[in-house]
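Handout, page 2. Input:
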Amino acid sequence: MSDPRIISVTLDERTILWRSADVEQERRIAIFDLLEDNHFAPQRQHADGYAGPYKLHLRVEEGRLALEIHRADGAPLETLVLGLARFRRPIRDYFAICDSYYQAIRNATPQQIETVDMARRGIHNEAAELLKERLEGKIDVDFDTARRLFTLLCVLHIKG
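Output:
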């Protein structure tokens, strides 16, 4: 029976040097929302027909994102590695707009906050579409799952 969803997600904490309270909150929300509702269906067929649910471990190594996919019991299934060159600019832009957003929350008018938030959502949505495109043929994900995975990808890129 097929159950194409993530039931657990972890990040390689060795690659994360520092997180602000704002970033930690974004990480917690992304993981909570991801586990509440996601569609995650690796396209590789397994000999025994296993089709979920999945445990996912994310890490960044040598400029590549590794998605370590495990069965519900923790047994490894596969590791998918994606080059991150096409994500450099979206990640940089997302960090910049998030900084502006957190500053706006503390100092700006509601209209200014809304303007910055709309820009932040736009960048986030574009990056999610790029991630969906890069996963095509490897893992089928819905848009919301891609958005949350992009948030976690950004968390992995924080260097302090």
